[in-house]
Amino acid sequence: MQPCGILNYKYAQDMAIVRTKLQWGLWIAFLIFLFSMPLFMPPIWLVFLNFIMITVITVLGLQLLIGFCGQISLMHSATMAVGAYSSAIIARTFAIPFWLSVPCGMLAAGVIGIVFGAPSLRVKGYYLALATMAAHFVIVFAIAHAPLDITGGRIGLDVPSATIGGFAFKNDLSWYYLILPITLISGLFAKNLARGKIGRALVAIRDNDLTAEAVGINLFSYKVLAFFICSLFAGLAGSLQAYYIGFLDIDQFTFWNSIWYLGMIVIGGAGSILGVLFGVVVWRLLEYGILLAGPVLNPLLGGTIFPLLNAVFAILIIIFLIFEPRGLAHRWELFKVSYRLWPYSY
Amino acid sequence: MVTPEMLLSGLISGVLTGGLYGLLAISFILIYKASGVLNFAQGEMAMVGAYIIFFVLVQLHLPIILGLLVGIILAGLFGWVIHETALRPLIGQPVFSMMMMTVAFSLFFRGITSVIWGPIILPAPELVPLKTLSIGIAKFSLVGVVSFVCAGLAAIGFTIFFRFTKRGLLMRAVCEDHQLAEATGISVRSILDQVWILAAVVATVGGVLVSQTTAVGDITANVAMKALPVALLVGLESIPGALLGGVIIGVSEIVASLYFDSFTRGGMMETFPFVVMLLVLIIRPYGLFGLKRIERV
Question: Measured between CB atoms, which of B95, B111, B267 is closest to A126?
Fold first, then answer.
């Protein structure tokens, strides 16, 4: 709902992301805040921020697939692994620079997404979830048990450091200024995709696939496209994570990671790009909070801080599913409506 | 090199573990058939069952018969609680919510059991003596035989139950259509409660039998997860078929690990069921014995 006096006369006005002057101001303030964050943050927090942004990128892809197209994928972290491993292997064997190997990793992840997303035309709902779950285990198995000189198997793989034009990204600060623009661009891309022709087609498929096909939407190509885009995001996030950590290990990409990404979507709200930000930030802050409290809690619990984390997250998901199925994004919308009508809300 | 002797003993143990998978798959199919919920937390339900039996037998020191009885009752209560608290509020929600709920439960059970009982695996109370029987050159474990017999009894029992008893007929009516069943005067809620209780009890029996050969811990859940490929292979409908599906999966994973492990540096045993699952979903999504639903998309 728009504030009083803001009326839409053109389609472009109706579709605009930023509609009022106040919104412009807030956005610019938010961007300045983001870019100046390292000035007043302790350096250790930059690591957290970088991981939050990488997670935002990967969950954006999952949001487009689940929230907009309604296709369930439980293999998201395996797709990330494919992206990470392919960019690292390409960079190692052909000595390809960072800016070229990351797109290669994205493309490889996209191909995997197409291969395992193609059955989505025949299998739906639960069955698709099961198929992608099986795909996760098969992909992870293939990476962990491939010949040792290719993927490093269980030993892991060293990733060369990222350089662009002679500048090496070595400390967390430089990484922050690399990942932040990428995250912002990904978010803008996802938002534009979601409100454009493709996004409308995906929403139509989610709401009723029979009707969508009847009005001339090619189900197969759009479903595969959704899987492809989702995997591109996952590949991007996976490659960035691999370069950022500088070391690859298949245990960084567990099945539970895929489930956590789904949990972030539940908390943020399915079908909302802004919800991704809410979900990831809430989840990660809670995670870091519990981990920071670990030294205090651990003696009480007998060293079971990680299982406790799982239990807390699970309870959070259950509470959101029962009491707020539309997530924090819905709360945010309600909040906006209430302050825009204030003090004359009814 | 695979000798005939290895192959034979592998096949026998595959058939016997297959029975166990079948038993776990039956519990899975019960829930799916009646409520239309695909329970991703099935393996964890079996794990919680194993923990409950561990709790009553080892920590409370109850005598075996009484302990098993109390354990079974607790397990049934557990199934009832899951259904009433978590899945009933979600009626009418999209598939994604239902799936997330069961997935969240699997995360929760794994977390909370580690917090309560510690992050280490526990030795299971010995209910079936660890003996190896042998007929000719074939060797097999007593636990395997017991679990296969249990699975067979469960398959026969549930088949008779669904075919010839009134309650079984009511459950079938509920699984066909909730609204029609409600309209004919069946209380869908109480029938679903009963189904969840039954399924939790069956899962507990399966989990206890799994823990006899492994241990009580998340390892139990990992083994019990193989009920998913089994249930999918037979098509989520047929209860006697679950036993056959279990045997197929059990044998094929052993054969795969015998022949392929040398190429892949191990791990075939854990992954092969999921390869089968992927193939089934792509080639024949309704499974071996499932009803082929006609869809026009």
Answer: B95
